[in-house]
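hiii so um. not sure if this is the right channel but i have a protein structure encoded as tokens and i wanna go backwards to a sequence. like what aa goes where. can anyone help
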């Protein structure tokens, strides 16, 4: 399941969703993460933006593809116009998972000796590419939140009580 909200005015702030879209200037969209993927999208042609908090459940539910559909539906965006940025998130170096991930993430689950890891960033990029976003329009921060010494908050490394990374995007 993936809930995507269209932010249409200042009077009705939204919360409790996986993703938000808007074409309103000066309306920042903000998410909080610690290991999950912050996804930020811009359509410079239609002047629209979006942000998403993508964990493994959201990615397994096709959240990137659903975001593209929501942009198309809401703003008539073309995927080839969209720019995508992926903020700091847990990378396969640190994301050890159980065998049940193989069903949802197939080629993005790898065995490294006795460890089974999952590449959520690769899975997200794959969905955007399948949705016809140009590979050169997708930027990954290449920052792993969970690596030892990482400056980012990580639930995997520090537990649930750790802080959260704020990501935001706004149209000036
Ligand atoms: Zn790592």
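sure thing!! here u go:
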């Amino acid at each position: 399941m993936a809930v995507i909200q269209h932010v249409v005015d200042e009077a009705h702030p939204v919360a409790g969703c996986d993703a938000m879209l808007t074409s309103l200037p000066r309306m920042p969209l903000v998410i909080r993460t610690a290991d999950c993927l912050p996804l930020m999208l811009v359509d410079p042609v239609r002047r629209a933006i979006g942000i998403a908090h993508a964990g493994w459940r959201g990615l397994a539910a096709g959240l990137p593809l659903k975001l593209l559909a929501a942009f198309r539906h809401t703003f008539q965006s073309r995927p080839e116009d969209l720019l995508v940025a992926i903020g700091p998130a847990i990378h396969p170096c640190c994301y050890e998972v159980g065998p049940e991930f193989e069903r949802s993430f197939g080629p993005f689950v790898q065995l490294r000796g006795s460890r089974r890891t999952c590449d959520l960033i690769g899975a997200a990029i794959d969905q955007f590419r399948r949705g016809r976003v140009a590979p050169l329009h997708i930027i990954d921060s290449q920052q792993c939140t969970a690596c030892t010494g990482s400056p980012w908050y990580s639930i995997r490394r520090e537990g649930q009580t750790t802080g959260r990374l704020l990501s935001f995007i706004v149209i000036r």
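oh and Residues 91, 93-94, 144, 146-147 surround zinc ion (CB under 6 Å).
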